[in-house]
Write a structure and sequence with these properties.
Layout (H helix, E strand, L loop, with lengths): L1 H16 L5 H4 L2 H26 L11 H29 L8 H28 L3 E2 L19 E2 L1 H8 L1 H13 L6 H24 L9
Antiparallel strand pairs: 1-2
Length: 218
Amino acid sequence: MKFQLSVGLYLLTVAWFMAYTRPEFQVSRRRRWLSGMLVTAALFEVLYITLQGALAQASHFNESDALHSFLYSLMGLGAVMLALMVGWQAVEIAGHRKPRLPIVLHWSIAWGLLLTAVLTIIAGFTISTYQSPIIGLPRSEADGIWLFGWATNSGDLRVAHFLGTHAMHIIPTTTWLLIRISTNKAGLWLGFTLLTFIAAWVVTYLSALAGSSFLPFV
């Protein structure tokens, strides 16, 4: 259910941010093709994971036979497509600012989308390389934190993957909240948000690779 909710939030955000792209792009055939590919990839990911869950079978890292290996490869391709689509949207938004949208919020949206594309792909490929998000222990021995299931006694790449996936939400939202405190320091708030977020991602990513918990006190 967490994955389905995450994909739903992702699609709603992409649809919302589409309003900040160029008007000619919004009505273009290219936009329709990209949107169609995006929805197709998202539907496949959700339906396959839901089906495998209903069958009490793993969806990720399931290469038990040729069919499951093929479907798992398609999942990986779909995930890359989802990330690249928001990267494309970031470029479109960066090149066109709505007159009524404050420039700091404009760039927070563009940066959030771009970081989602880049960091999600990095974390996803790393997980695929290790054939598990858990590093340092067998997955069966990892103690999971409530709700998210992230390991607290070993490295867990899902933390960095989560942060990367939701950069498109975290960065614009945090920037918007901060500039409400002081509008004359809007540029500084955006810079602070970006640097803090990137630092947090790097720390969680490297700590996972080192087999260490993302919680420093554990």
